[in-house]
Amino acid sequence: MNGTEGPDFYIPMSNATGVVRSPHEYPQYYLAEPWVFSFITIYMFFLILIGIPINFFTLCVTVMHKNLRTPVYYILVNMTMADLLVIVVSFPFTMHTAMHGYFVHGQVGCNFEGFFTVHGTQISLWSLVVLAVERCMVSCRPGIDIRYRRRFVVKGIGFTWLMAFSCSLPPLFEWSRYIPEGLQCSCGVDYYTLKPDIFNESFINYMFTVHLIIPLTVISVCFGRLLCIVNNDAIDKHERDANCLAVVMTMGFFIFWLPYASIGWHVFTNQGSAFSPFAMTLTSFFAKSSVLYSPLICVCLDKQLRQCMIITLCQGKNPFAGDVGASKTEYSSLSSSSVAPA
Ligand SMILES: *C/C=C(C)/C=C\C=C(C)\C=C\C1=C(C)CCCC1(C)C
Ligand SMILES: *[C@@H]1O[C@H](CO)[C@@H](O)[C@H](O)[C@H]1NC(C)=O
Ligand SMILES: *[C@@H]1O[C@H](CO)[C@@H](O)[C@H](O)[C@H]1NC(C)=O
């Protein structure tokens, strides 16, 4: 045996030596030295510390500035909200778990952490799908009505939440399950056992098909069509910049998530074979840092957003108090852009 299976865990280490213990009850210091767990704790702490302000700031700036109320930014708002959800709700659990070296919160904590991580990530993934389709629509049919695009994106955002729920909820209701993985201080879905009583195999196949392959295919088809018109001058410069932003954001997402998805798929298709808990932990914690990439990419690539951020920052001590009058006179050329939300 290459692993030790329990009722609610699977540890990728043989219990021949008798040291393996349930990750819901005992520290897992036989999998890695305690300093590795401390390192993970500090890493999570930094993700929370950096992730909250940059996502929150991006969210505030996008909501506050009227000239950022275009469909592309609606999607950005959806993505930053999803990131915040993951950082605020699920990361503190992960950090606390790593601090103790095992799942101190038990199966409930595991469900909680797994659910919110998968849910937030799926919202981001489906947001990128909606974005790709929207980009395709705008670029292939220039002059399409902005109100139509808005309605499309608003419906699309509803759709992202629906799709996210259809991936994150089933493991809570006995179609597969959330289970500690890697060094046993974060939770993912069960790639490790077949568990026919919870139809694990069908769920993993469903998850990889509907929640990875299909979105990836739709995105590829849309971006494939964008390639043909990349230098078409009939298309507004702003729209072409937005296309570029969409492509880079999507690449960012897959750079963070494909290593984890590949390991999960490998473990699933090679049931019972030996794999390193480090490989799982390394890729899953790398994937967790994806909560930082979308605002960072936008700040780097999007001049308009950057400008709005600078305006917000320079407005005074408390830009969120909405000092509208002053900003209107001081930044006359951009005055229409700095109206506080109603
Ligand atoms: C730290 C916790 C992690 C990484 C939790 C689990 C994540 C999943 C079960 C992820 C599933 C997938 C998502 C959300 C999007 C890309 C494809 C996927 C199926 C690997
Ligand atoms: C591993 O083996 C030891 C000694 O036989 C036993 O006490 C322990 O419960 C086993 N661990 C698991 C998780 O089954
Ligand atoms: C343990 O892993 C090795 C290498 O991955 C594999 O060849 C072997 O069949 C596995 N043993 C069991 C019991 O699955």
> Counting H and I runs of at least 4 residues, what is the number of helices?
10
Structural class: mainly alpha
Counting structural domains, the number is 1
CATH superfamily: Rhodopsin 7-helix transmembrane proteins
Structure, described:
It is a single chain. The protein is mainly alpha-helical. The chain has a single domain (34-301), classed as Rhopdopsin 7-helix transmembrane proteins, CATH 1.20.1070. Helix content is 65%, strand content 4%. It has ten helices and four strands; from the N terminus they run ββααααββαααααα. It has helices spanning 34-64, 71-100, 106-140, 146-168, 200-228, 237-269, 277-288, 293-301, 303-314, 324-330; strands at 4-6, 9-11, 178-181, 186-189. The strands form two sheets. The chain has a two-stranded antiparallel ribbon with strand order 1-2. It has a two-stranded antiparallel ribbon with strand order 3-4. Strand 1 (4-6) and strand 2 (9-11) form a beta hairpin. Helix 3 packs parallel to helix 5 (200-228). 39% of the residues are buried. Bound molecules: retinal (RET) and 2-acetamido-2-deoxy-beta-D-glucopyranose (NAG) (2 copies). The site of retinal (RET) has 20 residues, from helix 3, strand 4, helix 5, helix 6 and helix 7.
